[in-house]
């Protein structure tokens, strides 16, 4: 983030089995969306990506062709050629509101249930398995949230904190699940509204989780992570009810 | 707020929800009449219809699923075992697939399979059979059926006093919510709808979400909450109005 290189992005995304093109597209989009590959950054070579995803080169090429068509990446020819992540614009708030409008409070609650399970377990394991290096990564993304200048940067720093917690848990499955959940819900959490928390509040909550992880208190780390996720979902449900309310007036 | 203004809010909300429930049963009833007509057309007693005779229901089922603003996830009829001449278990049930198309619901009636869909024991089948009444079941996760979170509305099919199955509809709670919540959101106090087992169906506050059990809120109801049963009795639902004023998201 913020121009920092992300050499480990690939390890987050390894597919266990022969993946389909759509799956590769989805994973790459999520990775780009979350800033695991930042704008202007060159993607690894086709053969390297194919190996990371565990798919045939032809499948990967199909996925890249789709992303090129969508304007997510561009491919330059020549000696310094390759696929590069295009600069993209912040998703406008009204599109996000439409997205929230499509979800029922039941779906939001269910999304929250899953996220609590994943984030809670990840934090508990991170407290048992995380090392100094992980703690530094986590502290970095808490600081990045404070420095963030746009909604998008805030959202990315927030998402990256949670993904790094999962990475510290040493579980590939939990990390994949956290990436998917952040792609689904992360943007909505920073939707501008009267109830959007200020970054300092979120930083404090992240810091409390990190402190528990550093002190090895897995029960506390899990409980704090769960409460943190719950607060976010509850806010989204309230916002959704507001939308429904203005609709029926 | 004055007592009677509060009461009016509550009654308005209840009658909206009653109407939305009876609208769904009205559709199911059309289907039920059609099935009974098929049975009667078979004429001579002792001669049972065959599975193919129920195919004529499909256009009607599809029209219900495709109706504008419908919350139906699936609808059709499920038959009592051995009432057809050529099948043991049978349903003529169609549903909306994830990409929005209408397709027959493919259920597994193989007893030895892990995903055997034994509807004989399912409450939306057994209750109309034993009571002769309409029921609303759920919300629940329809395992090996729709695999989604639904309500099932069902009414018994009786031909010459004999139970031959049920006509019913699966309601996607996610889409039904819009209708249920519209009334609740007009109330100034926190309120939610609960089933007879105390499970929240819809709420106007993020403090309660669909699927939760609200028993403990109910048990304090004598002192703090107003609990009013819905008029539409098949649902066994009640509206609970809590003493707290509803907070807006912006104020939270």
From TrEMBL, chain A:
SUPFAM superfamilies: GntR ligand-binding domain-like (SSF48008), Winged helix' DNA-binding domain (SSF46785). Keywords: DNA-binding, Repressor, Transcription, Transcription regulation. SMART domains: FCD, HTH_GNTR. The keyword Transcription regulation applies. Residues 18-88 form the HTH gntR-type domain. InterPro entries: GntR_C, TF_FadR/GntR_C, Tscrpt_reg_HTH_GntR, WH-like_DNA-bd_sf, WH_DNA-bd_sf. GO terms for molecular function: DNA binding; DNA-binding transcription factor activity. The keyword Transcription regulation applies. Transcriptional repressor for the pyruvate dehydrogenase complex genes aceEF and lpd. This is Pyruvate dehydrogenase complex repressor.
TrEMBL record, chain B:
InterPro entries: dCache_1 (IPR033479). CDD domains: PDC1_MCP_like. It is found in: Cell membrane. Pfam families: dCache_1. The keyword Kinase applies. It comes from the Bacteria. It is a multi-pass membrane protein. GO terms for cellular component: plasma membrane. The keyword Ion transport does not apply. Keywords: Cell membrane, Kinase, Membrane, Transferase, Transmembrane, Transmembrane helix. Residues 112-221 form the Cache domain. GO terms for molecular function: kinase activity. This is Histidine kinase. It comes from Halopseudomonas phragmitis.
